[in-house]
Structure formats: structure tokens, C-alpha cells
Amino acid sequence: MIKLYGFKISNFYSMVKVFLLEKGFEFEEVYIEPTYSEPFLELSPVGKVPFIEVEEGYLSESTAIMGFLESCIPDLPMTDQDSFRRAQMAQLIKVVELYIAVEYSRLLGYVFFGQSLNQAVADNAKPNMVKGLSAVQRLSNFSPYLLGEEVTMADFFTYYVLKTAIPVAQKVWDWDIVAEVEGLADWMQLMSQRPMVKQVDNEHRAAIAAFMENV
Ligand SMILES: N[C@@H](CCC(=O)N[C@@H](CS)C(=O)NCC(=O)O)C(=O)O
């Protein structure tokens, strides 16, 4: 059986967990905290969660994991059958990862873990996030999902990246990034109502509350 490693306060862990649930996989969750040291790096080479364990070995990076899972159960597709539209989905995911996720991740220490704000990092991150959000607007049609009538991997990826980007932008710049993209608020609401997303988001919220109590 697939094993999903990580912890519930991670938005990337939530993303992959929802994907597993939506695709109907049976899996086991294994609690592990990320660390940049051996032997963890044997399992996840840049020291991050989530990663999965399957018969063939260990796999990290959420997009690689979801791509693999997608190919295992193709009869519940979360990608378009058309190769150009599939590439457009990959384009959107890449934009969200490079211009939003990578940028906010450099500010997490300040937003969630009591570290001081590195103003140079913040100043550098914002223009890239503006570009990323503007690209999300151009690449999405919100009818009702980002790329059309069917939910795809891009919806799960973007939803969970934004779930963390939103509080980061709020705290660092007092910036409402949802208002930046027309259609985003309704789409976030739509995604949040999917039963598996609801379940995982409740677990995520509870895990964050427990974590904050212990800080
Ligand atoms: N690019 C990775 C990002 C995963 C990620 O950022 N994981 C965070 C938790 S949400 C982590 O493990 N952080 C530990 C660290 O950076 O030391 C993916 O797509 O899975």
C-alpha cells in the first residue's frame, strides 16, 4: 500500500493527501518531520515533505507525486486527454510554483515561526508574486475550474499554494491576493466545498491549532 509521509500542517502534504483521496487510492499516513540530514535525505533528497513510498521506491516533490498517481489510476482523470491542454495545465502549475510558492516560502519564518522580517526578501518577492497572479488570471478561465469544466491537478496545486500564500501576503504586505484575480474568490470557495478538500482542510486547521498551542 502507498505510504504518505509528512505532517498535517503542511499545505503540500494536504495537496497530495487530497489528490490520493480524490483518486480513490488506499494509503497509509506516516508522521515525519522534515529535516535536512541523513537518513531523511535518502527518502526525500531536499529534505522536504511530503514524499511517498511505493513498491518501486520513494518519491518527493508534489507535482512528481501527483503525476505518478495520475498515471496509476487514469480512469479517474485529473488531467486533460488532449496533449496541448495537458501542457497548458503544466504551464499553470509551473507558474504558480515558481512565482508564488517559491516566493512566499522565503517569508514563512517571519509569518509563522516568529523570525524577523527580511525586508529585502519581501521587496524582492512581491513583484514576482504580482507577475504570478497576473499569469494565473491570463491562464485560467474559472468555468468553473481553473482550466474548464473538469477539476485538474492544477486546481489542487493552486488551491493549496494559495492557502498559504494568502496569509503570507496579508501579514507581510497587508495585501489581499485573492482580490487581485477576478474569479479567484468564487473558485476558492468552490474548491473548499469538495468533500475531500473539506475533510483535509479540517485536519489541517486542527493540526495548525495544536502546533500553535505548543509554540
Ligand atoms: N517543492 C516541494 C515543496 C514542499 C515543501 O515546501 N514542504 C515543506 C512543508 S510545507 C517542507 O518540507 N519544509 C521543510 C524545509 O524546507 O526545511 C513540493 O512540491 O513538495
Structure at a glance:
With 215 residues, the chain is an alpha+beta fold. Helix content is 59%, strand content 8%. The chain has helices at 11-23, 40-43, 62-72, 83-105, 108-112, 119-139, 153-173, 184-192, 195-214; strands at residues 2-6, 27-31, 51-54, 57-60.
Topology:
Blueprint (H helix, E strand, L loop, with lengths): L1 E5 L4 H13 L3 E5 L8 H4 L7 E4 L2 E4 L1 H11 L10 H23 L2 H5 L6 H21 L13 H21 L10 H9 L2 H20 L1
Parallel strand pairs: 1-2
Antiparallel strand pairs: 1-3, 3-4
Helix pairs in contact: 1-3, 1-7, 1-9, 4-6, 4-7
Glutathione binds next to helix 1.
Task: List the keywords.
binds glutathione, 215 residues, Glutathione S-transferase Yfyf (Class Pi), Chain A, domain 2, Glutaredoxin, alpha+beta, four-stranded mixed sheet, 2 domains
Percent range of helical residues: 55-70%
Largest sheet: 4 strands, mixed
Terminal CA distance reads: 34 Å
**DSSP, total strands:** 4
Count of discrete structural domains: 2
Oligomerization: single chain
| Helical run tally | 9
**Poorly predicted runs:** none
Anisotropy-based shape: globular
Q: What ligand species are in this complex? A: glutathione
Residues in β-strands, percent:
5-15%
CATH architect. name of the largest domain:
Up-down Bundle
CATH class of the largest domain: Mainly Alpha
Task: Write down the CATH topology of the largest domain.
Answer: Glutathione S-transferase Yfyf (Class Pi), Chain A, domain 2
Rounded mean pLDDT is: 97
Query: Could you say which structural class the secondary elements and strand pairing correspond to?
Result: alpha+beta
SSE order in H/E notation?
Answer: EHEHEEHHHHHHH
- The strand order across the widest sheet is 2-1-3-4
Could you tell me the radius of gyration in angstroms? 17 Å
